[in-house]
């Protein structure tokens, strides 16, 4: 029986089981991402200094190139998740066997294509990037195929992740991620300590990906939706259904890869391999921060897609607003901190030479703040099946990103800052602007009302946080790591009332308050009062 927490002063009840699930998933996600962030901060410094700027630039370039090969999955990763939740929302559980079986069969073929393409790319690596040293080009013959193999294993993992996500078991997904992280971190340290190079690093990636895939498969069988995987469920009709949705999802994935990875390739091509290393450092911080925050949207995604599958637009609108508020609650202090204190952090972390990326980091932080605000509307559009519109908007953003970034970086001489501006402007106009407006129309919601419920809150909160950080940066002396930690702590203290009263709405504050009171009751040894659904009243 579902239980509700009784609020004696207002005679209202608030459901808390769903809140517990969200809290469990978010806490596990944040712990995983914080572990990734800690490993990145500690291990990346070691990797960069062990390989040198040139070696690290080559490694970053190979990783970026391999990410493009992930497009061989033709959007089936996204369509698999969409249709798993779609059919669960409609109660057509029998179709799950077909979705999962077709997905895995397709990935088996796509993985082979990836490995062959990686080998072909490795053969021509020296000709494609003539500024790369000959020794690095020779290592590419082994590194790129190994990275392609790790990507293949990641394809299979994606299907099992979607099964667990449909049951809100993100905690199990994060457990697999932590295990793979431990293997990657430990293996990387051992390899570099023993004098190994890029080939050995790529081998570590393969081992970690294999472990993750095996764990996710086992956990999805026990805790995911009940499905049967067999060749008899591989049907052409389901393949067409997945590929029809996945074709536009693939175009969207291509454009997303361009937006987030083209900067490294353009920097290596036009500005030199060291410029690519500096830009990669800024992207590395932003990517980890974005992944930390995007977990909030991932937690809300299954319910958004299942509500869309049922055609329940009121629930979809409510969940979308809640997802934006919760996402921005975490995004604002993190990205505002990058924008204000990024330069000091880079000097302390990697040395004065990498401080050249400080302004680039600030610009990318502001761009991704707008992008994260549009993630819940984007998921709502996917659930409603408007993947074509998503792809076309992403194509426009990618074209603007590359054209503007290349023009500013190479032709006007703005360097890596030009690449960052080329990312910022399209994300602001298309991400926080056009894409959100389109989502409002699809959900039949007034754009003005949506802006009042979300955009007004997070823009005001971000502005106050950045201004507060600038004042704190002026008032608090910067003396080493202690000064930096003091500044960050002061910024967090400043943000607490901003996030609580400005970024969140009344419903989110009530949910947090109710959960806090529930914990206090448990700690005090008092049991919650069970009530039935007929006794429940809605929250304002």
Question: Your description of this structure?
Answer:
This protein has 540 residues and is mainly alpha-helical. The chain has a domain at 53-254. Helices cover 82% and strands 1% of the residues. It has helices at residues 17-69, 76-90, 95-123, 125-128, 134-166, 170-193, 198-223, 236-271, 273-310, 313-350, 358-373, 375-383, 387-411, 416-442, 447-475, 480-503, 506-523, and strands spanning 4-7, 12-15. Strands 1-2 form a two-stranded antiparallel ribbon. It is globular, with a radius of gyration of 24 Å. The chain starts with a strand and ends in a 17-residue tail after the last helix.
Short characterization:
By secondary structure, the protein is mainly α. It has helices at residues 17-69, 76-90, 95-123, 125-128, 134-166, 170-193, 198-223, 236-271, 273-310, 313-350, 358-373, 375-383, 387-411, 416-442, 447-475, 480-503, 506-523, and strands at 4-7, 12-15.
Q: What is the element layout, followed by pairings?
A:
Layout: E1 4-7, E2 12-15, H1 17-69, H2 76-90, H3 95-123, H4 125-128, H5 134-166, H6 170-193, H7 198-223, H8 236-271, H9 273-310, H10 313-350, H11 358-373, H12 375-383, H13 387-411, H14 416-442, H15 447-475, H16 480-503, H17 506-523
Antiparallel strand pairs: 1-2
């Amino acid at each position: 029986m579902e239980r509700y927490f009784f609020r004696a002063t207002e005679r209202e009840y608030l459901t808390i089981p769903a809140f517990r699930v969200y809290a469990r998933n978010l806490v596990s996600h944040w712990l995983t991402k914080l572990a990734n962030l800690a490993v990145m901060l500690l291990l990346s410094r070691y990797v960069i200094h062990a390989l040198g700027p040139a070696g690290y630039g080559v490694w970053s370039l190979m990783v970026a190139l391999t990410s493009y090969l992930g497009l061989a999955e033709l959007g089936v990763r996204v369509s698999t998740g969409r249709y798993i939740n779609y059919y669960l929302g409609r109660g057509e559980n029998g179709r799950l066997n077909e979705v999962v079986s077709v997905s895995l069969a397709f990935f088996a073929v796509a993985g082979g294509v990836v490995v062959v393409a990686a080998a072909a790319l490795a053969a021509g690596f020296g000709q494609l990037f003539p500024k790369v040293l000959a020794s690095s080009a020779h290592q590419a013959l082994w590194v790129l195929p190994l990275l392609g193999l790790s990507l293949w294993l990641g394809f299979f993992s994606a299907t099992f992740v979607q099964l667990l996500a449909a049951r809100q078991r993100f905690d199990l997904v994060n457990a697999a991620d932590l295990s793979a992280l431990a293997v990657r971190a430990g293996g990387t340290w051992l390899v570099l300590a023993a004098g190994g190079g890029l080939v050995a690093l790529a081998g570590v990636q393969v081992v970690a990906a294999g472990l993750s895939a095996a764990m996710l498969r086992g956990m999805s069988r026990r805790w995911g939706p009940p499905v049967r995987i067999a060749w008899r469920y591989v049907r052409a009709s389901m393949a067409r259904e997945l590929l029809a949705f996945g074709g536009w999802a693939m175009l969207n994935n291509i454009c997303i890869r361009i937006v987030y990875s083209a900067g490294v390739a353009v920097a290596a091509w036009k500005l030199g391999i060291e410029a690519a290393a500096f830009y990669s450092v800024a992207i590395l911080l932003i990517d980890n921060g974005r992944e930390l925050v995007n977990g909030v949207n991932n937690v809300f995604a299954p319910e958004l897609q299942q509500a869309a599958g049922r055609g329940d637009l009121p629930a979809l609108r409510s969940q979308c607003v809640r997802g934006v508020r919760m996402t921005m609650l975490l995004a604002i202090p993190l990205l505002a901190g990058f924008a204000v204190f990024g330069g000091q952090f880079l000097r302390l972390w990697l040395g004065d030479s990498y401080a050249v990326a400080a302004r680039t980091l600030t610009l990318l932080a502001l761009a991704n703040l707008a992008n994260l605000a549009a993630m819940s509307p984007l998921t709502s559009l996917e659930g409603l099946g408007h993947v074509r519109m998503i792809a076309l908007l992403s194509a426009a953003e990618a074209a603007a990103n590359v054209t503007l970034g290349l023009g500013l970086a190479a032709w006007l001489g703005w360097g890596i800052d030009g690449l960052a501006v080329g990312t910022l402007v399209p994300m602001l106009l298309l991400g926080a602007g056009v894409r959100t407006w389109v989502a409002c129309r699809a959900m039949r919601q007034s754009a003005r009302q949506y802006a009042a419920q979300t955009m007004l809150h997070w823009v005001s909160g971000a502005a106050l946080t950045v201004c507060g950080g600038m004042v704190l940066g002026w008032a608090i002396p910067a003396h080493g790591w202690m000064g930096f930690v003091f500044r960050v702590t002061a910024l967090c203290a400043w943000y607490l009332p901003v996030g609580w009263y400005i970024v969140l709405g009344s419903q989110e504050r009530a949910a947090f308050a109710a959960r806090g009171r529930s914990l206090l009751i448990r700690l005090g040894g008092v049991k919650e009062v069970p009530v039935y659904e007929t006794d429940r009243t809605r929250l304002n």
